[in-house]
Amino acid sequence: MDEASRRKAASFDEHYLPKLVTVLREGYGPGALKADALAGLTVAIVALPLSMAIAIASGVGPERGLYTAIVGGFLVSLLGGSRFQIGGPAGAFIVLVAACVADIGLGGLLLATFLSGFVLIAAGALRLGSYIKFIPYPVTVGFTAGIAVIIFASQIKDLLGLDLGGPEPGEIIHKLEALWAARGTVSVAALGLAAGTIALIEAVKRWRPRWPSLLIGIVAASVLAAGLGLPVETIGSRFGALPRVLPVPELPEMSGEALRAALPYAASFALLGAIESLLSAVVADGMSGRQHRSNGELVAQGVANIGSALFGGFCVTGTIARTATNVRSGSRGPVSGMLHALFLLAFMIVAAPLAAFIPLAALAGLLAIVAWNMAEKEEFAGLIRASRGDAAVVIVTFLLVVFRDLTEGIVVGFALGGLVFIQRMSVAARIERHAPDAAPEDGESHDPGVVVYRLHGAFFFGAAATLGSVLDRIAARPRAFVVDFTEVPFLDSSGAHSFETLAHKLHRRGAVLYLTGTSSEVRRALLAQGVREPLARYLPDIEAALEAARAGGA
Known about the structure:
Structural class: mainly alpha
Shape: elongated
Largest sheet: 5 strands, mixed
Order of helices and strands: HHHHEHHHHHHHHHEHHHHHHEEHEHEHEH
Radius of gyration: 30 Å
Mean pLDDT: 86
Helix content: 55-70%
């Protein structure tokens, strides 16, 4: 293999090699398999009720959540760029999936999920994974808190056992109006069962944190409801019996009209899936000390979404809570995620008839806990206290997600976060007079016709107007003007253009512009805007520029 081929292979491994291959190359023995089996079983016990609850809240049958966790979860671990990522349905998608189902139906949802897989693969192939991390932290906190509010609002009906007398509105204001109008139909049995489920789950978490609290809460609620014959709605009464095997894979309908309707949702699924999965991978890295391959992870998420859609599932992404559980349970690598999917398949084959007894009020209680944990309340409050800019970004993102649209909230929040960053960077950039200009080391009076200024910070379009006006004012009198760029890490075309204007102004008056301490990138930007001799002279440092000025510009 020649050098070029070796570099290509190394680049492929760096970005796309599945972590499963890395783990197997390192050596994988019976001890690691045992540890992964225990971790996979633990995660499967957590994922079993959660996958069904998320599917129901998303407006589809509970079996769709299991299909998603089994097929998508297996493929994410098999091909992914994270050692510990657990894929499956996520609470963050409830809002989008429910809106998609209400708009274009189940077939449209499967098609949108299928298409989103190709979008994610393309994003990974273009190596866009590295850029997802640039989404501002206030945006992620704002949209996560907004999703938490919407998830909780979507569970109020089942938490209280309300009878709305018709379909539940999707838009939150109309939803709350309909729920309030039905307040007289509250079911004491459903409310008590939901409250008891929440209390039991939280008690187990506190007193026996290693026990599967979610499963214990759901099983206890199911036994109680069935044993006492409580008048509450169950999975069986609303959805019928669950299937015991995976369906035969089938391509979704792909007519022109269906594609046009599904594409906007596919783009939203891909955007949110990329954000959620890479955030989850970062959390796993922080817990384990490992490093994930972001572009490989996007490709794996894309393949998983395609596979999930073929088997009747919906959006797959990395799930932060289940991934964290996987790490804490002693996982050694991706095998635990693959086994988690197989355990879920075994549960479905063996225990599918028992799922019919699960009360919907208990699942609503479970999702209420998920929403509470998702809200990131302390982080939200901390950002509001941090600065007006951060507070504006997190609040605007939150409000748009809750009252408008998730994608709109992310896009507007990202744009607003960018404006806040630009404003902060422009304030940080400054220009100051250099000390030798006022007190030369040799003790002689410095030539008043020579001035020296230093730039600090990035000189870009956000700062160019402010610093440009300063440069114009101080360039009114000198015959030699020295500007030092030693502490300028970046200069864009707008900043360089302001120096082109200054250089022409000085040249017309017969003055000389000296530029010192320019890095190769800064000098390249200046030269691209025409800042070159005879308009300006480049010297290595201020001392060299002062010598040249004293010598009459030679």
